[in-house]
Write a structure and sequence with these properties.
Layout lengths: L7 H26 L51 H26 L8 H4 E4 L27 H5 L4 H11 L19 E6 L7 E6 L4 E5 L25 E4 L6 E5 L7 E6 L4 E5 L4 E6 L10 E5 L7 E6 L3 E6 L13 E3 L5 E6 L6 E6 L3 E6 L12 E4 L4 E6 L4 E6 L3 E6 L25 E4 L14 E2 L9 E6 L3 E6 L4 E5 L10 E4 L6 E4 L5 E4 L1
Antiparallel strand pairs: 1-5, 2-3, 3-4, 4-5, 6-7, 7-8, 8-9, 10-11, 11-12, 12-13, 14-15, 15-16, 16-17, 18-19, 19-20, 20-21, 22-23, 23-24, 24-25, 26-27, 27-28
Protein name: DNA damage-binding protein CMR1
Organism: Aspergillus ruber (strain CBS 135680)
Pfam family, one: WD40
């Protein structure tokens, strides 16, 4: 009897078996060619299709569906088993070398450059602002607000009964956003702004900003916007609307954390960086030279702040992220490997900010990750065991401590508060050298605490208060960024004087600074853009 014709199901099953056998045979041949033979897999046996003559007479049993045996499917085989051992080692070695080269290149980008730089060696974009370089010869407690909701305005000013306070509020609230260009068009640095300062000149607002990657942006806000001109012959042509003239340099390889200009040397800008160096930029020659750094490039000393005494334009003071405080005379030659840098270990944790007392610069305050604000006397500072004159602990870390010329200190803290300490009332102006006075915990308590949201998160620069050093009135004031996209201005008594805002501000102006004497305020954002009120 002729064999029964195969069903479609059987044909497919046999085709699967043949394909599997062919794959196994190929894998075996590849393994044998490399000298490593795989154990032969069990060969499945196939039965001939049953015929009518061989079919049992009993009732046929229903055929079970065939389940594919995954164990017999082709398995991934290593390069070694496929005879590619040599190529794999070469590829792995090459990949490791490429990875090492990339890591070394990234590390090299962050190593400070100790060379002196000219303008052309630093410039990233923009142009010199004039033919003479970068400068010319003219040179209270409130609750947490809802997002973007004002907490201070005209109504608060009208309700003010104190004459001097009302005048200060009207004066500061009257500042207007610079109208020449919208804030979103004034991109001063490529990355997030970490620090800013004004040039002390009162003839024009000249602003400097340092960012996360070591860029330095310069803006002359005295420039006027060119009149837009449209080509009358071309109806479809748009009006010419140029951006402001900006200059972007790169004097550092890592974050610029702090900067200052001494009033007695207005042509020099000093910048401190996480790349462990302090550099001096000549604003007339547009050159930059290193003024302080560890003796070895292998030493990592990220600097968190710098300051200078008003009566000494040659000495610079600094703090570091590892809790050190130092002093350096910039007239001295670079220290050799055998010399000891003049520094003191004041904290086991990061010092986020510090400042000297302007009228008595042997006193200074530090703010630390160890949750304290401490007052120090440099004249009595022991190198082995430095002891502060007084300290105050907050519930969470203290971000910054700033002295004003009246002997008051303003701090910002992650416990969502601004604290103001009046050390003048504790007699700081009358203490003589060598005094053994130590302030008690009660004496170091803040005189005023203002509720203020300081939760900046990861992407916004930490909020720090900054005083106007020479206010043209009897009311001391400081500014600080507001997470609702404002800049708040407070008096030394904790009274809010203004809440600056304006059209086109789309990010938090976290870094805010006062001009030393003029009522000019500038804020910098995480996108490198600035907002200026004048």
């Amino acid at each position: 009897m002729p064999a029964e014709e195969l069903s479609d199901f059987e044909k497919q099953r046999l085709a699967n078996i043949a394909e599997r056998d062919q794959l196994l045979k190929k894998l075996k041949q590849e393994a044998q060619s490399s000298g490593l033979a795989l154990p032969p897999p069990p060969r499945p046996t196939t039965k001939k299709p049953p015929t009518d003559s061989s079919r049992p007479k009993k009732k046929p049993v229903p055929r079970k569906p065939v389940v594919k045996d995954e164990s017999l499917a082709p398995r991934r085989v290593s390069s070694r088993l496929r005879g590619l051992a040599a190529d794999s080692e070469v590829a792995k070695r090459k990949a490791d070398e490429q990875q090492d080269a990339m890591m070394e290149a990234e590390r090299a980008k962050k190593v400070r450059k100790s060379d002196a730089f000219s303008f052309n060696e630093m410039v990233v974009s923009g142009q010199k602002l004039s033919g003479e370089g970068l400068i010319g010869v003219d040179v209270v407690t409130k609750g947490v607000a809802k997002p973007y909701e004002r907490t201070f305005g005209d109504e608060d000013i009208q309700m003010t009964t104190d004459k001097d306070l009302k005048a200060a509020r009207e004066e500061m609230s009257g500042l207007q956003l610079w109208e020449a260009w919208e804030p979103n068009r004034i991109k001063l640095t490529p990355e997030r702004i970490y620090t800013m300062t004004f040039h002390p000149s009162e003839t024009k607002p000249l602003i400097f900003a340092g960012d996360k990657l070591g860029h330095l942006g310069v803006l002359d806000a005295s420039q006027e916007k060119p009149v837009s001109v449209k080509n009358e012959d071309d109806e479809d042509a748009e009006e010419d609307d140029p951006d402001p003239i900006l200059t972007t340099l790169k004097p550092h390889t890592r974050t610029i954390s702090s900067m200052t200009i001494h009033p007695a040397k207005p042509t020099h800008l000093y910048t401190a960086s996480y790349d462990s160096s302090i550099r001096e930029m000549d604003l007339e020659k547009t050159t930059s030279v290193e003024k302080y750094a560890p003796t070895s490039l292998a030493d990592d000393l990220p600097l968190s702040g710098i300051d200078m005494a008003a009566d000494d334009p040659n000495t610079i003071y600094w703090t570091s992220l590892d809790g050190a405080f130092g002093r350096h005379d910039m007239r001295a030659p670079p220290p050799s490997s055998t010399e000891v840098v003049e520094s003191w270990q004041l904290s086991e944790k990061k010092i986020g900010g510090f400042s000297l007392y302007p009228t008595h610069p042997h006193y200074f305050v530090t703010a630390s990750l160890d949750r304290t604000m401490k007052l120090w006397d440099l004249r009595n500072l022991s190198r082995d065991e430095p002891v502060p004159v007084g300290e105050h602990a907050s519930r969470l870390s203290v971000s910054h401590a700033a002295f004003n010329s009246a002997g008051q200190v303003a701090t910002s803290s992650y416990d969502d508060s601004l604290k103001i300490y009046d050390l003048a009332t504790q007699g700081i102006n009358t203490w003589s050298e060598g005094h053994d006075k130590t302030l008690s915990d009660e004496q170091m308590k803040p005189d005023t605490v203002v509720r203020h949201n300081c939760q900046t998160g990861r992407w916004v620069t930490i909020l720090r208060p900054q005083w106007q050093q020479n206010p043209q009135s009897s009311i001391q004031r400081f500014c600080i960024g507001n997470m609702n996209r404002f800049i708040d201005i407070y008096s030394s008594a904790g009274d809010q004087l203004a809440q600056l805002s304006g059209e086109g501000i789309t990010a938090v102006p976290a870094v805010s600074v006062f001009h030393p004497s003029k009522n000019w305020v500038v804020g910098g954002t995480a996108s490198g853009k600035v907002c200026l009120w004048i």
